[in-house]
What we know:
Layout (H helix, E strand, L loop, with lengths): L6 H29 L5 H13 L15 H5 L2 E2 L7 H7 L6 E6 L2 E2 L12 E4 L14 H9 L4 E5 L9 E7 L7 E12 L4 E10 L5 E11 L4 E9 L5 E10 L4 E8 L4 E10 L5 E8 L6 E10 L5 E10 L4 E10 L7 E10 L5 E10 L5 E9 L3 H8 L5 H17 L5 H14 L4
Helix pairs in contact: 2-5, 6-7
Amino acid sequence: xxxxxxxxxxxxxxxxxxxxxxxxxxxxxxxxxxxxxxxxxxxxxxxxxxxxxxxxxxxxxxxxxxxxxxxxxxxxxxxxxxxxxxxxxxxxxxxxxxxxxxxxxxxxxxxxxxxxxxxxxxxxxxxxxxxxxxxxxxxxxxxxxxxxxxxxxxxxxxxxxxxxxxxxxxxxxxxxxxxxxxxxxxxxxxxxxxxxxxxxxxxxxxxxxxxxxxxxxxxxxxxxxxxxxxxxxxxxxxxxxxxxxxxxxxxxxxxxxxxxxxxxxxxxxxxxxxxxxxxxxxxxxxxxxxxxxxxxxxxxxxxxxxxxxxxxxxxxxxxxxxxxxxxxxxxxxxxxxxxxxxxxxxxxxxxxxxxxxxxxxxxxxxxxxxxxxxxxxxxxxxxxxxxxxxxxxxxxxxxxxxxxxxxxxxxxxxxxxxxxxxxxxxxxxxxxxx
Length: 434
């Protein structure tokens, strides 16, 4: 049968993958020594974890849709590049916010805001240790061990940040045989009774290939409100791997929206623990791969305490010959009575050769809960097109209106207006050829 391997063929493939993984890990080890040597205790701990977890073996279930061969065969090097204010302005969002700018993983003091308002921003000290990961994963540990300048952000208790904190991450490629690798690491703590909005923005400085890794961990204190927007729109040659964690305390509200709008290969995971009673989580994402791009989105949520509520909505617009993946897991522990949790994945297929793989999952270890998940995959409804065209609207415009309506449930909740407008402009640019 097609696709089945003999035992010898399977052994050969396994040996081939093992050799490639070993070579790639040796190269990452060289990068680790260049980055920190023995100076950073935090980086050293995560490099040891990276070696324990190791790269995925042949036909690993969690990596079956994320092709790593090209990535692992590439040679990487750190790049340190300065850009001027005019270039930064052309790449940045036009919003009123406290701004932190990292270029190829390096903090840029000139382009970043001098005044960060109530946010206390520092660099990670060599002997500091950041919180342990919720869910271990190889590229999480690679980012932790290779990040050149991790940023620590603290918002004191009883504080309402009137302006968002804008994290602008700019990566560049080069013409050499060694591809640029950039790692971005932030850790934020919202103390008790505080409110903040964080905007993560990832862009490319040029059209050349580069590898971007990112990680944002957030600890949300009791009775606090945290809003998060991620806008990822790197060039069509970029490879992007991200893993964010959120720890949620008591009586808190969290809203997180991710808009993943471009790169050759994107893998984005969000891991969350709800550990305080009476808290609410809204976790949403929009994926829009085109051409032969691949976007793999994964969520992992633990309900560990009673009387909490979570709602997830993940939407995909699959174009051309792209591949999209959604894999979501909700775990409800035996202590999480009165949990109300919902996870939905809706997909709109626009390309005849586009591929969607969806896998929402539930693990429930207690009674007296309301939990459900679901997924839909479909095309644009011909009746909707006919209805709009019968009212004098051109076919292409009608199709575009339906697609924008499909995204509205996610974009309408964005604030402030300037940020919503910026996200919509990026979505419009993504759909110009539809």
